[in-house]
Amino acid sequence: MSALMKLVILVPCCFFLVALIKFLYNYLWTPLRIQHMMNSQGIKGPPYRFIHGNNNQVTRMKVEASTKPMSLTRHDIFPRVQPHVHSWLNTYGKNYLSWNGVQAELVISEPELVREVLKNSKKAFLKPKPTLLGSKLLGKGLVMVEGENWVKQRKLANFAFHGQSLKQNMIPEVVASVETMLERWKGQEEKEMEVYQEFRLLTAEVISRTAFGSSYLEGEKIFTMLDKLSILVIRDIFKTRIPFISKLWKTADLVESEQLQKGIQDCVMEIIMKREDKDLVDECKTFYLAGQGNVNSLLGWTVLLLSIHGDWQEKARREVFEMFGNQNPHPEGIAKLKTMSMIMNETLRLYGPSNGLYRRVGREVQLEKLVLPANIHLVALNIALHNDPQLWGDDVHLFKPERFAQGIAKATNHNAAAFFPFGLGTRSCVGMTFATTEAKIALSMILQRYTMTLSPAYVHKPVLLITYKPQHGIQVIFEALHKDA
Ligand code: HEM
Ligand SMILES: *[C@@H]1O[C@H](CO)[C@@H](O)[C@H](O)[C@H]1NC(C)=O
């Protein structure tokens, strides 16, 4: 054989061998090493399976759980919406290791560890790198960025959401948006109304007016595209990526997501051009994505809970009339609505939209009781903490806003990391005051006009679709308080 022939055979062989070794290193050696390292520190979990990790088990358990009926007296949604997590917490303990494909995920629900991670000040924990599709959704918006970019953007956002600008710029826009919604409701009294969709329109209108400075109609095209894109991104998360092949051609989802991204960019630019501030595209998208669905969820579940708990609905209404009479809500009063705040906190505890805070370990880090290897992901599971009878008592699954009557510390038995619907530490929600203010205004204005009861048509099926959503909406019957109103 000539030297050239040998080369022609040998070179591809070498390439193949190197690729194979790399493949086995990433998909076998590294996961097993991480698993061993965590096991030896007492952290157990479902074993790693080649390439797929635990994804097949997750899919199977989710399908099974989604067929089980749910009652409306015990609000125990955790085993239904995250059956795999619920079951593994019971089997392996409050902190366990699982595998999203080849990615190690350390799920944590022990308050001390959650606090240690979320309040870590040494930048040991970063936001996970977005998937290819995910980066199209959030771009370089505040939720995703790190370091100096984050500091800069967070400062701007803090300013935009601070007391004075909230009062002057946002509250009037929210009131106007709620009025638009209530206008739509006129003549619908005593008929069944699907409020989840109503609150989708309301929350999108609020973001339109406050972030985009336009009306819902102008924003509608953008929102529809963003909603479609988020569905693609979520679908992508539990897909196992087959190595090499995913690099060779674009999936249909990827092609569609690129078109959506371009469409969104163009539409947002068009609106923003009018305002002459072109750096805002990602931030406007971020505020829509971070804000709209979460407030939608909070409003929907609060109205559901008030519809079945007439006593709390009456207490909330009494407080609203004492504070505002028949007038529109004003900033001083909104801040003082205590009963409403208790009700909203109890709703956030039982149906909070966040399904865990994700972090990535940068370099190997030494914690008080654990050493964590680089690049594993952590999931601080608020749903687990919010449903833990050891923290909240045996009535943990009941709707009892009175547990917040003496404040958070008392409700959680002085456990600082037991309740964090808006996150904890430096990366906690920048829109918290905005969100609670928006919800309080909407609820106050509804309570001033209507009593509400749940329609017999309602079926209780919360599903995890970014937030926890009612699968078939929430059907409520409104009755006007004053027939001439
Ligand atoms: C009930 C409503 C809301 C809930 C429950 C909620 C929850 C959260 C949570 C848990 C985080 C922390 C995520 C993490 O640590 O990984 C967060 C961050 C964030 N939220 Fe909210 N949110 C709500 C409404 C809003 C609204 C209305 C906006 C803006 C208009 C907003 C904007 C943001 C932003 C920009 C971040 C990232 C902050 C940063 O990384 O510095 N949120 N939110
Ligand atoms: C509700 O929770 C928030 C934090 O999420 C807290 O600031 C507020 O004081 C709570 N309200 C009540 C009445 O417990």
UniProtKB/TrEMBL annotation:
Give the UniProt subcellular location, in the record's own words. Answer: Membrane
Pfam families in the record: p450 (PF00067)
Cofactor needs: heme
Where is this chain primarily localised? membrane
Q: Which PROSITE patterns match?
A: CYTOCHROME_P450
Gene3D superfamilies per the UniProt record, alphabetical? Cytochrome P450
Topology of the protein relative to the lipid bilayer: Single-pass membrane protein
This protein's superkingdom? Eukaryota
The similarity annotation says:
Belongs to the cytochrome P450 family.
Return the protein name: Cytochrome P450 CYP749A22-like
Q: Source organism lineage?
A: Eukaryota, Viridiplantae, Streptophyta, Embryophyta, Tracheophyta
